[in-house]
Fold:
Amino acid sequence: MATKERAGGRLFRFPHRDTVKLSRRALMGMAEAGVGFLLGGILAGAEIFGLYAPFGVAAVAAAGSGLSGFCTLAGSCLGYLCLEGMTNGMRYGATAILTYSVAFAFYDAKFYKRVWFMPAIAAFLSAITGIICRGGEGWYGEDLVYFVTEVLLAAAAAYSYRIVFTQWPETLESLKNLTPRQSVGVLMLGGTVLMSLARVEILETFSLGRLVAAVGVMAAARRGPGEGVLTGACAGVALDMASGEDPYYSLIFALAGLACGLCRDHRKPLAGLVYVLTTFAVVLWRFDGGEHIGLPMEAVVGAVLFLVLPVQAAPTAVQSKQADAGTGELDQRRQVIARKMGEMAGAFHTLYDNVRQTLRPEETGGEDPAEIFTGTADKVCAKCILRTTCWQKEYQDTRMVLNDASVPILDRGRALATDFAGRFSARCIHFPEFLGEVNRQLTAFLRRRQALRRTLQTRRTLCGQYARLDKLMRTAATELSVGLTPDLPRQERLNGFLTSRNLSGGLVYYDKEGRLQVEVPAAAPLKTRAARREMAELLGVPLREGEEVEERLIFAQAEPFRATAALVGAPRKGEPVSGDTGLWFRREDGMLFLLLCDGMGSGEAARQESAQAAQLLESFLRAGMDPEEAVETVSAALALRGEVGGSTTIDLLSVDLYTGRCCVHKQGAAPTYVRRGKQIKCAVGSSPPAGIVTGEQARPDQHKFRGEAGDWIVMVTDGILCGREDVWIRDLMSGYQGDSPSDLAQRILQQSGDLCQGEDDGTVLAVHLKARGEN
Structure:
């Protein structure tokens, strides 16, 4: 919800910078459709044996019947007509259209979801159209082998593409741990793309497909010699099939990948040089009169591109074992703590259930108003000689009169003679005594009902507190049970950094929000600013100052935003202390909290009220509780004291320094002002102060907005405005040209003192948001 502002009696909202109306799902669908069109066109140009091109049909079979499938069909048909000529283009275009038609017709059938169905359709239709178009030419041994190979490759490619399209990892980290099926799919897709790119020649010497293959083999070889040989062999086979010649590229790329993979523990320039030299050696060994003399030059250009690309070597077995051991040890500690927290949460949940069953806060039954007249009859009517007439012979008339009178009596809180008009009041010979006793019984009834309501409300509040604490403990146990995600490349760099200082035991991992965390021993050389700066440069991520926890230094990824804040205040005239309490702090997850509490009244008693509320809120927030739940919990706790304690306002601002999201939580607090550029916005609330009411009425007002670098946010207590218009504070903020929150807060406090003359305690909390690195 955007922050509401009040200016000239009108409410308005912060405009959001992103005015794009398309949803994320729509954008993703458009991107998939574009990729499908491009991929269909590229794969349509992949030929084997110089004549067969079944891979565009396979792409259509794998893409399915949706929008992306239709775009893949359009790209394939266009590619076939442009690259394969009229005869072949019409044949494969028709096959692709038939394939898409089958997918569209049977998309809701059970057998359509079988992994073999669409690959089988692609192979069957490729065979049918091939027989129709080429059957008249006759079938010879070599042509028959090529035709069968085409049909089989259509099925295999469709199956492999479908794996890539439907099981592609969602994160870049997952690409390092592909399953065997995913690896086969990637190799098939990459190989067929190389077949198509091999047809593109640069300066009639360089082949774009061979150039891309060289870069891909060198990148795969950084994972090890096995990956280098496998990738080189697959790329070579694809290029050999595209050229229709004897195996030649398979040998070159496999040997070059093996040699480059053996250098994975060395720097990239050496690995690239070894690849180029191996390619030169194999070309000279298999010299064929200069037909493939462009291969060494392609290897040189590919090596240059390989050096530019951010490709890193995989960690060695020893490094991986050390990283896994360190992370495993930390995970074990977390699991032990999580188990203990889970046990405590389970015990507390059992206690909560027992308390709820005992107190039964959902019961809303109260006393019956008929008890008022029953008690009156026992004391007055029991001695009357007309009791038989009123309560037996004329019972229905008496009952109707008393029922009609109960409504105005309960609403008014007092009974009048006019409430009993009719035959009843005329017949009653002790009416004054009857009326007086009704009022006494009514007073007792109202007191009992009020006490009962307070008891039920207290029970509900108490059960609500137990429920919040139960949720907090179960959430903490769940978060601790989630395993850590290590970053092995950065782990390798951190190990080298620590080894150079004769240290060990460092860890690099991601927290549940996907933000980098670095743990190192709490050694003196690592506590310096220079060491933190060096680690940040080494890991490629800005780090904030480390926190020492149990002989370990924990560095978190630095936030994109930073904030400077200032707190100033003055007590009421004649009072030694202010009744306001203000504070701010940053949590380890990058959340910044700024808090103002204004105790009821002024002086020491008010200071104690506000300080107690602020300390409770700070404790809950530091423990990881959601801000809204923290405010509700503290408000309910203050309300449980009843008449023993007073009330206090709560004004809480939370700022996510990673995303800029801000939220203001208010309970009886004064407005909060936000300046963006020269525009002033105001967040106001209508809920009562904490400690007065409970339940739904005690829910704090919330105002959400997204902060930006350069924003000023000012929080004040009601003593700053002292019931006057706030035009002056808006003008002061919009005209402020400085860069100091302390200076701005002092100016606001000084001008408030001139206007209000110390009528009440006044406190100002000013904060300025900046981008990290901005002065």
Remarks:
- The longest strand covers residues 561-570.
- The chain is about 55% helix and 15% strand.
- The longest helix spans residues 431-481.
